[in-house]
Amino acid sequence: MAPAGNKYLDNIEPATGNVYCKIPDSDNKDIANAVNAAATAFPEWSALPADARSNRMIKIADIIDRKLDELARAESIDNGKPVSLARSVDIPRASSNFRFFATAILHFSSEAHTMEGEALNYTNRLPIGVAGCISPWNLPLYLFTWKIAPALAAGNCVVAKPSELTPMTAYLLSEICMEAGLPPGVLNIVHGLGAKAGQAIIEHPEISVISFTGSTKTGQLIAKIAGPMFKKLSLELGGKNPNIIFADCDFDEALKTTVRSSFQNQGQICLCGSRIFIEKPAYEKFRDAFVKKVNEMRIGDPLDESTKSGAIVSKQHFEKIMSYIDLAKQEGGAILAGGKPVSLEGRCENGYFIQPTVIEGLDVSCRTNQEEIFGPVVTLTPFENEEEVIRYANSTQYGLSATIWTENLKRAHLVAKKLKCGIVWVNCWLVRDLRTPFGGMKQSGIGREGGFEALRFFTEMQNVCIKL
Ligand code: NAD
Fold it and tell me: Which ligand 1 atom sits nearest the alpha carbon of residue 221?
């Protein structure tokens, strides 16, 4: 549907720097229309038996699977990520999100509390109404569906906005939902700018539950608006995650996975580790091997099947990352690998590419080590003992995730418990069981996504007390 104001925005392919399509520049009138459509569809959708909603959602998952190649290619063009990554991670995860919540809702139950001889209480978990879902550009369809699927499964209707930088697979999802027979108004995908269309979702009085993933700065603004309106909020925000390498780790495994956890998707995954702490006896060996591996990484056209490192999502983000590399130098950091933009030949000569960058010699409290860069930039820091590395790891305002590498499980348990973050991986990274609670502590957000936690979030509790 055309936007009410009939205005459009340019959508740029990051690998080429060229405009390749236009997207609606929606405003509050479009959001009001979307909310009306959702509110109209809500009575019927919420009254359906869970298995009827589940069947529709499984159909959506099946179509996503069938369109894997088309969606992966669209995601790669829109975001700059390697097409092989989109095909193996992003798109399969989007269909898993639908399938997971379509089946989770069949097992969702609520509590009953009996007061012997007096009363029986049972708790209803009711769909709330119109949910607002807003997602970022780094894992476009993956994170968009991670919010939409539990909201729909729980019986809500949804108004959802993808990032204006990566709208394409959300658009394709709207076509898929129509093909799957999702009733009109149940899911309303609106495109446009954050400060305009996004904020109109936050401000709309009929949207009383909001799931947001994005930066801490936007999260703060959303909380400010939604707080006094008593909206239910789930905020998944920024991170500055530590990778902790103990000298007793399985060296090869730690090395291989830490290269991946640093630079996958050009370091633009909220769960990437950007501060690597290495126990002193292993420091030089790990540093040298890590730098060697990073220097072997090749950046290429995201649409080339063999490419493992693609483009940065936008010119603005490219400039932000480069400014942090300059800052690191000013702060006294030594660039051990990378540090420069990359010029590719041919189709991608004007794209936004940056070498994977490794920096050492910085204090843990400097800005480079405290602020989220969200790009292919990591720092290396040696540590003496557990106490010191826990202090280093917890020293930022963020608390999303961490990895610990050690063969000493007792130590892993103890250190994990002392890390102030929502997700800890021991001897692995990004292993995801969708039943587990996902989210951050401190400035990395509030609430948890995943499993029944997400279904609880998208429902309202009501206690019914019956006299016996
Ligand atoms: P962003 O905050 O700029 O934008 C995220 C979304 O919010 C976009 O759709 C945007 O249009 C919208 N938005 C912007 N301003 C808004 C406003 N005033 N009101 C309503 N919506 C608004 O973030 P980004 O640059 O797209 O994404 C990168 C950030 O996301 C990083 O900080 C990263 O760590 C974070 N992130 C977190 C997680 C997590 O699970 N914790 C996952 C992925 C990304």
Answer: 18
